[in-house]
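FORM 12-B: Structure-to-Sequence Request
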């Protein structure tokens, strides 16, 4: 439900503009040239490079770090972009602490990995700030491909297809391209309108047309795309949101966390954003953490994250949990909401403790109330409006190999497709690999 400006307890301008600007500044300041050289010098350049294996896009990490160490960050950026054309955003939002940096030999030996993410950002930012696009299209093939969704999977797929000489049209339901990079990540992880700048830079490859405000099923159909194009890639993400299944879910002050984050991402004035005095966030993934932290940064006095299982089962990494705790967010584990309290507007959440019985989770019957004037739901998204004829498994489009669906000429990747984790870097890998398979198929 969208909050009314008269919802009690939810108000804008809880903090002054200077404090808000400081709160929402870059989470990790970029390295300068000297700092990058010092950080690069810590790399062992391992011959077996476990960090490469841990990277979903298989970037040659020791190579790009060596290129930074030898004073050629532009070459390092090219090494990164060869595998991950959204390497700039991934350097900002990837959970490197559970991927490449966790696998780093320095992490195992000293508990302090090479700062791979910040080094990747240094290299990619250096090249992009020079206005250089390091790729040139192949000769035109005459083949046309439709990409549905301008998020990480769709953009990566489109760029790789254009690189091979195909003409690509991207359709997206939103007014801007970028998908979750534009609308769905924490503001402090990608400041300065970087998501849009990255999309504009990516499109410099040529051969890609983007049509925004066009949704599959509303403005375009899969049958229509199949008739017009030689191949179709579906990367539209997950548009639906799971229901809370608690009484009072429709009260004023309850809203989806993804909408809350999108409003924040698109705001030109953070002081104008309303936030509750007492906020409860329900869920345990990255969306829950991002919503909770940003509620606190906007000036909420108390923010509580409710997660129905224990800490170890929480999808958000321990690093993200600790970040939230450092901002004053409170966690309540093994607890699930059973009712949203209030008379019209939210006044609190009734919570029941849970326990595990085998693989099942059951309520203990013991309840308590948490005061709240705003409740943000972050309990997962669902595939919304999947075209007929596609097999669905686990609530997502079934794919095999590099994104092939059960319909000939249709590929899928990213959050809408079955497969890997719901991460930006995984979506990029799936879009890229599907593009290679589409290219092979189109060229015989």
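FORM 12-B RESPONSE
SEQUENCE OUT:
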């Amino acid at each position: 439900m969208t909050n009314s400006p008269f919802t009690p307890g939810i108000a804008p301008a809880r903090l002054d503009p200077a404090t808000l600007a400081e709160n929402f500044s870059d989470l990790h300041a970029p390295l300068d040239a000297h700092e990058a050289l010092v950080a690069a010098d810590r790399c062992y350049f391992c011959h077996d490079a476990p960090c490469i294996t841990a990277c979903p896009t298989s970037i040659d990490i020791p190579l790009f770090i060596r290129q930074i160490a030898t004073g050629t960050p532009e070459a390092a950026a090219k090494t990164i972009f060869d595998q991950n054309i959204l390497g700039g955003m991934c350097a900002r939002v990837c959970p490197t602490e559970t991927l490449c940096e966790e696998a780093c030999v320095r992490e195992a030996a000293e508990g302090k990995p090479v700062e791979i993410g910040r080094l990747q950002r240094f290299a990619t930012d250096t090249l992009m700030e020079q206005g250089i696009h390091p790729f040139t299209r192949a000769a035109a093939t005459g083949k046309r491909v439709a990409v549905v969704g301008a998020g990480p999977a769709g953009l990566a797929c489109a760029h790789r297809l254009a690189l091979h000489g195909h003409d690509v049209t991207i359709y997206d339901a939103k007014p801007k391209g970028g998908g979750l990079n534009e609308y769905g990540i924490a503001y402090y992880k990608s400041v300065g309108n970087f998501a849009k700048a990255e999309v504009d830079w990516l499109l410099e490859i040529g051969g890609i047309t983007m049509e925004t405000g066009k949704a599959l099923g509303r403005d375009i159909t899969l049958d229509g795309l199949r008739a017009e194009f030689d191949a179709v890639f579906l990367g539209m993400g997950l548009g639906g949101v799971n229901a809370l299944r608690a009484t009072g879910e429709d009260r004023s002050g309850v809203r989806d966390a993804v909408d809350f984050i999108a409003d924040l991402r698109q705001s030109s004035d953070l002081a104008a954003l309303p936030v509750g005095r007492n906020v409860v966030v329900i869920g345990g993934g990255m969306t829950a953490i991002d919503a909770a932290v940003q509620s606190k940064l906007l000036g909420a006095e108390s923010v509580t994250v409710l997660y129905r299982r224990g800490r170890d089962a929480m999808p958000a990494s321990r690093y993200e949990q600790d970040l939230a705790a450092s901002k004053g967010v409170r966690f309540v584990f093994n607890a699930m909401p059973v009712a949203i309290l209030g008379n019209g507007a939210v006044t609190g959440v009734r919570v029941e403790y849970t326990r595990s019985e085998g693989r099942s989770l059951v309520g203990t019957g013991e309840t308590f109330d948490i005061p709240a004037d705003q409740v943000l739901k972050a309990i997962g998204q669902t595939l919304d409006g999947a075209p007929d004829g596609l097999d669905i498994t686990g609530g997502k489009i079934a794919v095999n190999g590099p994104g092939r669906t059960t319909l000939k000429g249709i590929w899928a990747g990213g959050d809408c497709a079955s497969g890997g984790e719901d991460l930006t870097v995984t979506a990029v890998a799936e879009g890229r690999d599907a593009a290679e398979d589409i290219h092979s198929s189109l060229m015989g």
